[in-house]
Amino acid sequence: MSGEAEPNVRQAIPFFMVSDMEASVRFYVDGLGFEITHRWVGDDGKLRWCCMRNGEAALMLQEYTREGHGPGRPEGKLGLGVSICFVCRDALAIYREVKARGVAAETPFVGNAMWVTSLTDPDGYRIDFESPTDVPEETVYSE
Question: Which end of the chain is more exposed for a tag (fewer CB within 10 A), N or C?
Answer without folding.
Answer: N
